[in-house]
Amino acid sequence: MLTFEKYVRPGSAAQALELLRENRQATVIGGMMWLRLADRTSPLGIDLAGCGLDKVEETEDAFRIGAMVTLGQLENHERFKAATCGIFTEAVRDIVGTQFRNLATVGGSLYARMGFSDIVTALLALDTEVELEGAGTMPIIPFVERGARNDILTHVVVRKHRYQAAFESVRNAATDFSALNAAAACWQGSWHVTVGARPKKATLVTGGERIPLRRDFSPAELDAVCELAESLDFGDDLRGTAAWRRAVAPALVRRAVERAAKKPRAEKEA
Ligand SMILES: Cc1cc2nc3c(=O)[nH]c(=O)nc-3n(C[C@H](O)[C@H](O)[C@H](O)COP(=O)(O)OP(=O)(O)OC[C@H]3O[C@@H](n4cnc5c(N)ncnc54)[C@H](O)[C@@H]3O)c2cc1C
Questions:
Q1: Which residue of 10, 38, 216, 248 has the smallest Cβ count within 10 Å?
Q2: Number of helices (H) and strands (E), helices first, in the chain?
Q3: How far from 77 is each of 12, 18, 56, 176, CA to CA, in Å?
Q4: What residues does the FAD-binding PCMH-type domain cover (predicted)?
Q5: CB 167 within 8 A of CB 256
Q6: Element housing 29 (H / E)
C-alpha cells in the first residue's frame, strides 16, 4: 500500500512546485491509478486536484489540455476528437474500462512516460508540446526522450493542423497492456509515425529529425518506412519477444498509415 506521512492539496501549480522543490522525496499525485499500486511510504503527497488543471481550452491554433484532465474527458471531447481524427480515442479505448479512464489523467500518463503507454505513442505522432511549471514549454520529443525530473507537468498542447491520423495496437488479451503499438499522423505535408511498447517507450520512425515520409507517398516509400520500423531497438518481456515485435512492427506501421490516409483530413477549425 502507498502511504503518505503528510498530504497537501496546493491551489496552484506554482505552489505545488515550491513544495516539491522543498521536499525532493515528495510524490506528485495525478489520478493516482498507477501510484496506488506502489508499496512504500512517501513523506509528502502533493495532490494536483486543486490546481485548476482539469480543463481543455481551445484556441484558434491549439488545444491546451490541463494535466488533470482525465483520459475519459479527452476521449469524449468532440472537438478534440474531430480535430485529431479520433487518434486519442483509438489509443485509450482499450485501457481497462470507462471508470478507470475517468480517473487516470493525461498528465500522469505523459509524465510517467511508461514503455507500454498508448497515450505517449499517440501524442508523439501529433504536433504536441508540454508545459512544465519549472522547465517551461518544450516539444514532446525531447520530453519523451529525456523527461523532466522534479517538475510539474501543467498542460499538454496539441497544435491544430489538417491532420489525418490513426492508432493501432496488438494486445494479447482485451484491456491488457499493448504488446506493441503504432500511430501515424500526417501534418504539414509529412507523416509522423511512432512505434511504442517495444517494450521501451515510444519513438519516431519518421518525422522529427528522422527521414520524412511525404503526404502522397509512393508504395516504395511506404515500404521503406516499414523496413525502418523493423530496424528499431526491440526487447523481450512477458508480452512478446524482440523477434516477434520486429516481425509485427512493419505490418502495424503499414496498417496505421494506410488507415489514417483513408480518413478525411480534419478541418483546422474543428
Ligand atoms: C491496471 C492498469 C492498466 C493500465 N493499462 C494501460 C494501457 O493499456 N495503456 C496505457 O497507455 N496506459 C495504461 N495504464 C496507465 C494509465 O493509463 C495511466 O497512464 C496511469 O494510471 C497514470 O495516470 P494517473 O493519472 O493515474 O497518474 P498517477 O498514478 O497519479 O501518477 C503517475 C506518475 O506520474 C507522476 N505525476 C502524475 N501527474 C503528474 C504531473 N502533472 N506532473 C508531474 N508528475 C506527475 C506521479 O508522481 C507518478 O510518478 C494502466 C494503468 C493501470 C494501473
A1: 216
A2: 10, 15
A3: 24, 32, 9, 24
A4: 1-163
A5: yes
A6: strand 27-29
Q: How many CB atoms lie within 10 A of CB 113?
A: 17
| CA pair distance 143, 245, nearest whole angstrom | 25
Neighbour-count burial of 244, counting CB atoms closer than 10 A to its CB (0-12 exposed, 13-18 middle, 19+ buried): middle
Do residues 134 and 107 touch, judged by C-beta distance below 8 A? Answer: no
Q: What domains are defined for the chain?
A: 2-45 (no CATH), 56-159 (3.30.465.10), 164-262 (3.30.390.50)
In contact, 155 and 146? CB cutoff 8 Å: no
Per-residue pLDDT, 149? 86
144 Cα–ligand 1 center, Å: 15
255: CA distance to ligand 1 center in Å?
Answer: 27
pLDDT tens-digit readout, 210-257: 888 999 999 999 999 999 999 999 999 999 999 999 999 999 999 999
Distance 20 CA to ligand 1 centre (A): 19
Give the other-Cβ count within 10 Å of 164's Cβ.
Answer: 23
Q: What are phi and psi of 218, to 5 degrees?
A: -90, 165
Is any atom of ligand 1 closer than 6 Å to the C-beta of 163?
no
Closest ligand 1 atom to residue 154 Cα is 41
- Substitution candidate for ligand 1 out of 33, 40, 54, 131 with most atoms within 8 A of CB: 33
CA separation for the pair 14, 214 (Å, rounded): 42
Q: How far apart are CA 83 and CA 67, in angstroms?
A: 19
Q: Classify strands 128-132 and 153-159 as parallel, antiparallel or unpaired.
A: antiparallel
